[in-house]
Every structure is written in C-alpha cells, then in structure tokens.
Design brief:
The complex is a heterodimer of chains A (219) and B (610). Chain A is α+β, with helices and mostly antiparallel strands. Chain A has 2 domains: 105 residues, Alpha-Beta Plaits (2-Layer Sandwich), CATH 3.30.70; 103 residues, 2-Layer Sandwich (Alpha-Beta Plaits). Chain A has 6 helices and 12 strands. In chain A, a hairpin with a 2-residue loop joins β8 and β9. Chain B has 2 domains: 228 residues, Rossmann fold (3-Layer(aba) Sandwich); 262 residues, tm_1862 like domain (pyruvate-formate lyase- activating enzyme), CATH 3.80.30.20. Chain B is globular. Chain B starts with a helix and ends in a 24-residue tail after the last helix. Classes of the chains: A alpha+beta (219), B alpha/beta (610).
Chain lengths: 219, 610
C-alpha cells in the first residue's frame, strides 16, 4: 500500500540537503521497523520519495514523503512508528493512505507557498517593492546562465503582518525558488528574513487543491 | 552562544552547512552548570572525516557518560566557513551548544595524520587562543592531544599542554578526575600539569627539554619533575572495554558512512615499516558474542545499512570465519550489508573466500606492499607469490572481479627489479583472472593498484632509515608508470611524492618544527592532506623562514646511537628489539608472528603484554 507522510523540517534540520534527507529517511525507516519496500539493486535502500525538493536553508511546515509498504497497515500506526524514529528537526504531522490510482505526488505538485518572515525592514519600502513586482508584466532574472521570465511563475505575492506570503510555481515545467524572488525584492528594499514553506498544491477537481488532502483517504 | 541570526547568515553562504549545525540523532547535549567540566573534542579535519574517526566517537560517548562532564565536538571549518567566521568576527564554536572554544576547560585534539597540523593552528586561531602553550594562561583552555601521531609528538610539542599516549579510555578519565581534584584544592595550571605527568601515559612536553648537537641532532632530553620515559597506556580488558552502541548518525554523509565494530586491537605480524604494528601491540580481541550483540544494537539504534569490521588485520581474528559467517547471515536478513576491510592474503586459506561471498561485493583488498619475495622478506611481509596467486584465484573462482592492491616504493634496499616486480605481480594476478573458466567470471576484471611512497616511522625497525630524496621518488614513480604501460585496463594510482616528503619530516621530526608549522599556517596552508589545497611551495618557504632543511629530517640515515626526538615516548617495544629487526631486515631474514611463541619484543618486561 502507498502512504503519504506530512512532516516539518525545522531548526538546524533546514540545512539538511535533499540527498541527505533521503538517507535520513531511509535510516528512520530501518529504525522504525516499518515494513517499507526496499529498492532492488546493488545497494538496496528503502524506497522513499518526496513530493518536492526543498532548497537547503529553508524551513518547512509542509513536506510530504511517500512510501510503499509490503503489507497493509493503519495510517495512525505508521505515523506513530515513524514519529518515534525521525531524527531531531524532522517532525511527522500526519500520515494517510494514498487513494487508488493516485499519481506520484512529485508529478502532481504544481504550486508551493512560502511565508517569508521579515526581521529588519522599512515596511513602506517593502510594500512598494511588492507592488512594483506585481505590477510588472514580466520580470527577467538570470538563472543558470539563462535569462528567464519569472513573473508568470509568481501566483501570489503579498505583504502584511510582518510576513510576505508568496505562492510560486512548483511544476515540473517550471519551478521558482523562493530565494530567487527574495533576491529580487532585496534589490528594491533592504530587509533580512527567514523563509518557511507552508504548503504544496496540485490542480485537481477543477481547482487548486492542497496536495496532501487531494490524494489521500480520510482516516 | 553564537548569535542565531549571525549563524544563519554565515551558513547560508557555505557549502554543506550541516557540517556546522550539530543536532544529529545520537548527539549528546548535557545540562551545563558552573561546575561542569567542559571538554571539546577538536578534530583537525572536515566534519565528514572527523565523524568517521572511531576513537573520537568512543571517547565522546565515554566522557558524556560521566556525571559532571560534558563533551562536545568541533571540526576544522572548510576554507569557505573559515572566511565567514573571520569576516563576521565569530569565534570557532562547538556543534552541540554553539559555545566558543575558549569557554571550555579542555580542547582535545585528535592527531591521526601529520598533514593536519596547520588545521590545529587554524582552529586555535579562529578560537582566539594563542598557539604556544607558554603563551597561554590560567584562563585559556588546556589544549591536549592524542591519537596515532603522538607516538612522536615533538613537531607539535610546543603547541600542546599535554599528550595522552596510547589508548585513552582509562588515562583520559584519570586526567579529568585529577583536574576536578586540582580545582577543588585550588591548584594552579602548572601544578596540575606537574601532577598530570605522574599519570602513566601522560606526556607534559614543557617538563622536558631537548638539547641539540652542533650537527642539529638531539644531544639529550632532560626531564624535570617528570618521568624520563612516558609509557603508553593500553586497555587490558579490551573485550569488556567501553564501546558506544548508539553512535551519532550524521546528516552529511561521512567518509565511512556505516556502523563500525572494533573487533581487535594490535597486530603482531611485525611488518617492519608499520608503526601501528609496533606501537599498538599487544593483540587483544573482542569476543564474537559481544560483537554480535553490538552489531544488532548499533543497527537498531542508527538504522545504518552497512556494518564494517575494523582492526589492523581482520583475517587474524581467531574466529574470523564464524564471525563473518554469522554476522553476514543475520545482517542480510534485515537488509544490512557487511564489509570486511584489512584482510591479509594468507587469511584466504580454507575456503574463506567462499564465506566472503555473502559479504557485500565491495571488492577485495590485498596489500603485498612489495613486488618481489626478496623485498617482502626485508620488510617482513611474509607472503609468497604463490600465496598471492592462490588467494586471488580463490576469490576470482567464487565470483569476485574487483581487486585493489597496495604497494610501496622507496623501501629500504629496493632495486629497480623490485619496482618491475610490482608490475609483474599485477600481471600474474590479471592472468590468473583470465585463467578462471569464463562461466565462473563476472564480467571484466577491475584491478586497482595504489602505490604509496615509503615514509620511515618512529618506533619501527626502519626509524633510522632515510626516505628516498624527492627526485629519486619521482624517478621511481616514472619507472613504475612505464612498466604499467603494457598493462591495459589496470587503474594505477600513486601518492603525491611531495606530500610523502613532508610526512617523513613530521613523522620523525623534532620540536624545532613547530616554527615551520606556524610559518606554513601564516602563509595560508590548510587541509594539506587534501591534494587540491596542498601547496608545496608555501611549505618550502616555511622551512626557509624557520631556517630548517626538510632533507635533514627526511633523507638522512640516522646513526644507531642517535638520540631520537621521541626518545621520551615508550611503546614497550625495546630499542634492542627494533635494532635486531633492522639487522634481520638487511639479512632478508623474516620474523614470525609472536602468537606462535614470544619473541621478547620488550612488551612483557614493560608489563604491557596481555
């Protein structure tokens, strides 16, 4: 059976790279004793995949890992066992069985939401920076040596209560990293901040849906 | 405590920031009050290397198990992080509590490679701590060291307050107890150091003064208020000695990313070039039952996918067949693999290769060390050509197709024949592979040959021998490469000769070399063992600035009666024994393993044999 795990990546754990995160999960599975399937091959390891890679240095309240187990088991039991085995900084929030025929979550994700907590800034300057970007039709940045228009990848950008909320494209055909947009804002306003991912979304049932909820069964 | 925002700002700019965050599973963070004895394990290399160091792991957990003691970790920051620390004015800090190193009672450096010495200074410098022990006062931490390099501590003697010679499990605890006792009694730092010199295995260099002859050799070493000889410590009951079954599980993959079980200490084969073979005697084993239980618990606690057996010579473990067979069976049942490094060729008798089949196919590693039987007799690596061939044949017939071979050039009494002999041996091994019926073979042969340069080491029968001059080593490497031209498909690797020269200087150097290390540090040398950062010209400049000649240390044949700079360090093996082994070497006479009968190496008289 396929099971999705919603978890947080906080504190020092935000510095765990994506590759190291995979290894950390593989070890957590072995410690938990959960009947997760193993990959075949020369160096077998537990098959764990993630809905969306998170850039190193960014915290998250909303990460999803996907597992395939050898035997059926209730999701709450899975949640309890994996919670006890995760290393510090990775906290399991919810686990649910994926519905039959659900796509790979990594293939279904379309947007990611971030909360950028502002530490030191001039609020007016920052507001006008946000407005400036939202009023543009195109915003060219150089990524990997290539000029790209990132404006259409910004689904939402707003500032209020000391937090910039950004909803960015996270689709296979185009992903915008939050630090790229923060960099653009910093060209227009002087501030320091901490970034946290707060949601992942898919397009389903005629709208934008919460990724975890869209493909999991109610427990 | 380092400011969290500042730390974030620095970490956002460096490679692999998780090297500096701590917070791994298995990390120990103790409650700290004003009476806590705070010890920082300082590893003068990057996190991934330091976290693979078994000795540090053992001592970290051992000390944290003691009430009133808190041990933390610190690794040498990579140049990008060094730059961040310097530009932000942030002192080097511990991983666990982000405490600046200056606030600890002890900084305990692990010295396992001579080329990490500039990193020791880099760490002290970033911590704002003076390099030389005589420039530090009561308010500075005690800067101490242990590890393989301290069998000749002299090149770094001026930097450290004391050295822990030999196995530290017992002496380090005695040292910390003495420290607490001295604090209670209000004893000064110097008073503590004098009392510490009374603990067996503790060397306090400031209590020893070398005097030099006009030719630069050591004339005498005067001890004042300390024993003339510092005898190394060993753990007598190794089977029952402390071993952590819940090691830290790093997020950043260390060099050895696995559970490591220490199955044995010491080696009694007596290869004459090998410092570990003499300094780490006697042989002691951990029982198979205890290892089975340690393997099971460590895997349960860490979730690692691999278990590795660690020793100087795994094939010499008395029940190696049972150990490997049982472990491989029980681990494979839970999807965990077993790796078995450090095997001698002659452990392949009696179907051992068959047992290894169930072990992860990481390939086999053999170290013939020399290319001819004659030279192998000289270095006391007692294996015949036929033994090499039958071992690899057996391995090939059981489906192995990857072999790594280790050789050395520049050994004493080496001729061009011996260098050609390396290529000839490799050729015979390759032919042996293609002599195995095709249906038993698994694809093409993967043959890797690593050739290092002989570095004469303290406390070995070759401690008097010169290293080949750099030009000779380079010429020999060229000759070697030319012999391998005809050996297609063999991956030949050789060690940087300039690095070998410096290794030879520091492995047998004296106290004056501290100036060279300081100069090298000041000219920017860091991570010298990392070939991409090694800068030989800067080192030569440092020798020039200090007025010392590397050839004096590396390439000079030493007289039998010469006072060695490390003369105060006693491994238990007697000078007479080393001299006699040296004589036998040049007569090409071999010495058997002492487990077949005592050879009177001196350990027994020293009370160090078990």
């Amino acid at each position: 059976m396929r099971i999705a795990l919603l978890f947080e990546k906080k504190g020092a754990a935000k510095y765990i790279s994506h590759l190291d995160l995979q290894r950390a999960f593989s070890r957590a599975v072995r410690r938990s004793g959960l009947p997760v399937k193993m990959s075949q091959g020369f160096n077998p390891h537990y098959a764990v995949s993630f809905a969306s890679a998170l850039a190193t240095g960014i915290e998250s309240e909303y990460e999803i890992a996907e597992f395939e187990t050898k035997t059926d088991m209730p999701a709450p039991e899975f949640l309890r066992k994996i919670s006890g085995a995760l290393p510090p900084g990775l906290y399991a929030k919810d686990a649910a069985r994926l519905i039959d025929g659900a796509p790979k979550l990594a293939a279904a994700v379309r947007e990611a939401q971030y909360a950028v907590k502002i530490k030191k800034a001039d609020a007016d300057e920052l507001k006008s920076a946000v407005c400036d970007i939202m009023n543009k039709d195109s915003l060219m940045v150089v990524r990997n040596g290539q000029e790209t228009d990132i404006r259409k990848m910004i689904k939402e950008l707003s500032f209020g209560g000391g937090i910039i909320t950004m909803r960015l494209s996270a689709a296979p055909e185009g992903t915008l990293r939050p630090d790229t947009l923060v960099g653009e804002l910093k060209k227009r306003a002087d501030f320091t901040c901490g970034i946290t991912r707060t949601g992942l979304y898919t397009y389903a049932h005629g709208g934008t849906r919460d990724l975890f909820g869209a493909f999991t069964q109610e427990t | 405590m380092i400011d969290a925002d500042k730390l974030d700002e620095m970490l956002s700019k460096v490679q692999k920031p998780a090297r500096y965050t701590g917070g791994e599973l298995g990390e120990i963070k103790k409650d700290i009050d004003k009476d806590t004895l705070r010890f920082a394990f300082c590893f003068p290399d990057v996190y991934e290397v330091g976290m693979s160091h078994l000795g540090t792991g053992i001592l970290y957990h051992l000390l944290n198990g003691i009430g009133g003691v808190s041990a933390e970790r610190c690794f040498c920051p990579w140049p990008d992080m060094e730059h961040e620390l310097k530009s932000k004015g942030v002192p080097l800090f511990s991983l666990e509590t982000k405490t600046p190193l200056g606030a600890f009672d002890f900084l305990g450096f692990s010295l396992s490679y001579e080329m990490c010495y500039t990193n020791v200074l880099a760490m002290l410098s970033l911590a704002g701590i003076p390099f030389y022990s005589n420039e530090r006062n009561e308010n500075h931490p005690l800067v101490i060291a242990g590890g393989g390099c301290v069998y000749n501590p002299e090149p770094v003697a001026d930097f450290f307050d004391l050295f822990v010679i030999g196995e530290a499990e017992e002496s380090l605890v005695e040292l910390l107890n003495l420290y607490k006792d001295c604090q209670r009694r209000g004893v000064s730092k110097n008073g503590f150091l004098t009392e510490a010199a009374g603990i067996e295995g503790i060397y306090v260099p400031s209590l020893y003064e070398p005097d030099y002859n006009e030719d630069g050799t050591v004339k005498s070493i005067k001890a004042s208020g300390a024993p003339e000889k510092v005898k190394k410590r060993i753990v007598r009951d190794f089977d029952a000695s402390y071993f952590p079954e819940f090691p830290i599980v790093p997020f950043v993959a260390p060099v050895h990313d696995r559970v490591t079980l220490e199955i044995m200490r010491g080696c009694t084969r007596g290869c004459r070039f090998c410092q570990a073979g003499f300094a780490y005697r006697p042989v002691r084993e951990r029982s198979a039952e205890r290892l089975f239980s340690q393997a099971r618990r460590s895997v349960e606690n860490t979730g690692h996918e691999e278990v590795s057996l660690c020793s100087l010579s795994t094939g010499d473990y008395s029940q190696v067949g049972r150990l490997v067979g049982t472990l491989a069976d029980s681990l494979s049942g839970i999807g965990v693999s077993l790796s078995v490094p450090s095997l001698r060729i002659d452990s392949f008798e009696g179907g051992f290769a068959e047992k290894l089949k169930r072990v992860r196919n990481a390939g086999l590693t053999f170290a013939p060390e020399a290319g001819t039987k004659r030279l192998r007799d000289i270095i006391n690596k007692n294996i015949t050509d036929e033994e090499i061939l039958s071992a690899v044949r057996e391995a090939f017939e059981t489906g192995s197709n990857a072999v790594k071979l280790y050789f050395m050039i520049g050994l004493p009494a080496e001729t061009e024949e011996d260098i050609r002999g390396i290529a000839d041996t490799v050729r015979r091994i390759r032919d042996a592979y293609y002599g195995v019926p095709a249906e038993k073979r698994r694809g093409g042969l993967r043959l890797t040959v690593s050739v290092s340069n002989f570095v004469p080491k303290a406390h070995t029968p070759f401690q008097w021998e010169p290293q080949d001059p750099l030009e000779t080593l380079l010429k020999k490497q060229k000759l070697l490469i030319s012999h391998f031209k005809a050996l297609r498909g063999v991956d030949l690797k050789w060690h940087e000769a300039k690095l070998s020269l410096l290794e030879a200087v520091f492995s047998r150097g004296d106290r004056r070399l501290s100036k060279v290390i300081e100069e090298a540090f000041k000219s920017g040398c860091r991570f010298d063992g990392w070939i991409e950062l090694f800068d030989f010209d800067k080192w030569m400049g440092a020798f020039m600035a200090a007025g010392l000649d590397p050839a004096f240390y590396a390439n000079r044949k030493r007289e039998a009666g010469e006072v060695m700079p490390w003369g105060m360090i006693d491994t238990g093996v007697s000078d007479e024994y080393l001299q006699n082994e040296r004589k036998k070497a040049f007569d090409a006479k071999t010495t058997p393993d002492c487990r077949a009968g005592c050879l009177n190496c001196g350990l027994r008289e020293a009370g160090l044999c078990v």
